Amino acid sequence: MRVLLAAIVFWLLVPASRGEAQSDVPRPSRTYIYREARGESLHAYVFLPPGHPGAGRAHAILLFHGGGWSAGAPEWTFASARRFADSGLVAIAIQYRLSTGDVTPIDALEDACAAFEWTRGHAAELALSGRIAGYGVSAGGHLVAATATVGCPGKGSGPDALLLWSPALDLVNDRWFASKLQGRGTAADLSPARHVGPSTPPTSIVHGERDNLTPLAGVTSYCAALTKLGRTCDLHVYRGLGHLLTRNLADQESAYDPDPKARADGILQHHRFLMRLGFVKPPQRGRTTNDGNSGRR
To answer: Which of 5, 141, 193, 257 meets the CB 3.0–4.6 Å disulfide criterion with 170?
Structure first.
């Protein structure tokens, strides 16, 4: 079932319609190997903003794809990465290990932590300011949120802000996730909603009210805990929509039907969040942003 979801997410993340050629998918400006893990080279795909580095340093955002921890590819976030880069960020789509064989989400979380560490270590080379946001879809939302809550080794390894789209934030009752752990730890150990703390960064979440794959309850629990600590959690819930804002509630895995207006609004809300935090600049007077009309996430 989750493999079917992975195929669906592909169509959500490519830049235009299902009929568009693969050659039209945005391409990164640079590609790096950020980590070697068990003989596997893991890549960071860097999208630079126009004119970068120019006269100053840019903020960055790391992107993590969905796919139920066991499927997916960084290319699924390339359209989003290009959009973030066009807004002035250095956007980096991250490859992480998928939960196949003896690899588990714990390994993927280690990769996510390593990606933030690598980015900070290459701030001078990439002309970065040092401020790094994290963006994640579904399972990728879980991983990036976990770097900020469950935590990473060392200081300052995680993101300074979180942008999440249909994230899995409380996995205690998720049998699929439990099976992927293979007895290494518990779902509670890795549930961001159970580990919110005073250092959890400001968060913006886009979620469907009737999501039955990453239920809204986990998201509201996360936001309630963050708000109680006096931290920022902007939650945008879209009524009558399911996972990844699908309109097809009967089959949210294999008959995906995104609501275009809700998706455009979610993209806009994330952009406004980044503006409030100073990650991107407001549009110049007389110019408009294309966030509400840009392509697939």
So the answer is: 193
